[in-house]
Amino acid sequence: MVAMVVAAVAGLAAAGARGAAHAGGAGVVVVPAARSAATADEVTRAVAAASDADPEPMARARAARAAGAVPVEELAGFAQVGRLLAEGWRAYQVEVDAEYAASRLAAARSRAEALLVLPGGLEVYAEVSLHLGLVLGRLGRRDEAAEALRLAHALDRGRVVTTAEFAPDDVAAYDAAVAHVPPVATVTITASARAELTVDGRAVGRAPLTLTLGHGQHVVVARAPGRAPRGVAVSVGPEARPIVLDLERAPGDGGGSAVGLPAGADDADAVVADTLIFAELDELFVVASVYRGGSPALLGQRCVLARPACTPVVELGHVDGGLDAAARALVERLRAAALGHGVLLPRDVRVASGERGGGGHRRCGWCRDPWVLGGGGAVVIAAVVATVLVLSADAPVPVVTIDPGDFTR
User: Fold this and answer.
1) Are residues 224 and 75 in the same domain?
2) What is the CATH number of the domain that holds 226?
3) Exposure letters 305-315 (e unless 16+ CB within 10 A, then b)
4) Where residue 322 sits, what CATH number does that domain have?
5) What is the pLDDT along the chain (409 residues), one digit of tens a residue?
6) CB proximity list for 18: less than 8 A, separation 6 or greater
7) Same domain flag for 154 and 6
8) In 264-288, which positions are buried (b, 16+ CB within 10 angstroms) versus exposed (e)?
């Protein structure tokens, strides 16, 4: 059976690797600026054309997640668990080294905890628990062994344990553990966003809730819309502590559209990494259209999957109507720029509180008109003269000569 499990998890990992193999490519997402010189659609079209990029990578990534896509890195965990399981069981059966076998199987079960939320994860965790329980029983750790065997049965009730596969003593130990009914404890489970909960593979309701569980090991999985699912292995005893599952926000679900990254996004790095993974991209261009010095400009970063690693923010000004040429130049400069930064653009001050365009910073034209300046100056001087007259009625009347030409500069 171990060989079958190893083959199955290796097949899952290989399938994931095949699914992740792609022709590569680029994507583009737009960060809406406070004052944009061009619309998001215009910027997306220009940069996508310049870089041969997917104009809707975030929408494609979300669709892939909704369809149950799993990153190949996560699927590789199944293969790792399979190798540890085979190594530990071989040490138990062939090398007769129960201590080493237990250490390998414990490592396999620890690694399998990360797989609980994935299809097949519960069954793999059950298989490892079954083999670990049998080894622990041989080491005389009977209570731990019985708990592991009961958990294996609860997670995969269709699993048949017979002498066709296991030694008679192992089968007897398994049957005895499953038949035993342990004492129970009342446990409270809370989770973010009133998540739907399953305990040992059985749906129990929405958090928070209180339920009765037998002493020993259990697996709790929480899922909620807009949150990354989480599965944990817990141990319940006479003084059961509350079980708390904090679910992180799923990348990209904190706001924005399917094609845009909101300005000021706190999870920008996670969103970009998520998009690169699920849209199967080699590079992602994060761009914004702003005004700089009263003229249009493009800001951009290029990111790849490592961390993700991005270029610094590059600024490229352009004339009205020159968006396409600017997009080509921006892509060229970004592909030549060094990587090593996080996703900075959504929090860039030029995006969050940008300048006004259309000549907002040009000098006032009418203010330089000599007649306007002269007239305005005359009014000011007349007011001053009137004030002086009022305050000094007995003083000689001053004579003031005003030349409008004095106010031309």
Assistant:
1) no
2) 2.60.40.1120
3) beebebbebbb
4) 3.40.50
5) 555 455 555 444 444 433 433 436 999 999 999 899 999 999 999 999 999 999 999 888 888 877 777 777 777 889 999 999 999 999 999 988 999 999 999 999 999 999 999 989 999 999 999 999 999 999 999 999 999 999 999 999 999 999 999 999 999 999 999 999 999 999 999 999 999 999 999 999 999 999 999 999 999 999 998 788 999 999 999 988 999 999 987 765 544 444 467 666 667 888 898 889 888 899 999 999 999 999 999 999 999 987 779 999 999 999 999 999 999 999 999 999 999 999 999 999 999 887 877 654 444 444 444 444 444 444 434 443 344 333 444 444 444 334 444 444 4
6) none
7) yes
8) ebebbbbbbbbbbbbbbbebbbbbb
Contact 150, 177 (CB under 8 A): yes
The C-alpha atoms of residue 132 and residue 336 are separated, in whole angstroms, by 53
- For residue 201, what are the domain limits? 184-245
d(CA 295, CA 320): 8
3-state DSSP call for residue 366? helix
Which residue has 């080493």 as its token pair?
A: 100
- The verdict on residue 19 lying in a domain is no
| Among 359, 354, 289, CA closest to 327 | 289
Is residue 55 reached through a cis peptide bond, with omega within 30 degrees of 0 on the bond before it?
no
Task: State the alpha helices, DSSP H only, in 94-141.
Answer: 98-112, 121-138
Q: What is the pLDDT of residue 1?
A: 55
Contact 276, 308 (CB under 8 A): yes
In this structure, what token pair is assigned to residue 126?
A: 């059950």
> How many other CB atoms are found less than 10 A from the CB of residue 201?
16
Q: Structural domain tally of the chain? A: 4
For residues 172 and 72, membership in a common domain is answered with: yes
Structure tokens at 224: 């909620």
* C-beta of residue 130 within 8 angstroms of C-beta of residue 174: yes
In the block, tokens 């959504």 appear at: 346
Domain boundary among 156, 179, 202: 179
Encoded tokens for 127: 């298989």
